[in-house]
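Summarise this fold before class:
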Amino acid sequence: MGKGMKAGKKPHAPKQDMQARMAQVQALQNRMGEVQAQIDATETEASAGGGAVTVKVNGKHQLTSVVIDKEVLDDVEMLQDLIIAASNEAMRQIDEIAETEMGKVTGGLNLGF
């Protein structure tokens, strides 16, 4: 047991320390909300098949635009594959942006974002 401690008593942080920590947590939550709003407004674009299919995705993981070159309209299976590939790449880009931006706020803490 440490010097000055009595058996059965747990040390406790002064009330001011706890209030300061709570204020820090609240500030972090506010900043994370701001960053999430910025991420939600972000849009990425990805192409597949040498530009035959181009898609745009926003930070909410919503597909906002699909542009298809007329030359690939005759091959439905290839068109489907290109749409999937471009969409997956755009989603990956959004995830990377979100991870980077949230990492700046949380200082590398692993909070599951």
Observations:
- The chain has two helices and three strands.
- The chain has a mean pLDDT of 87.
- Strands lie at 43-48, 53-58, 63-68.
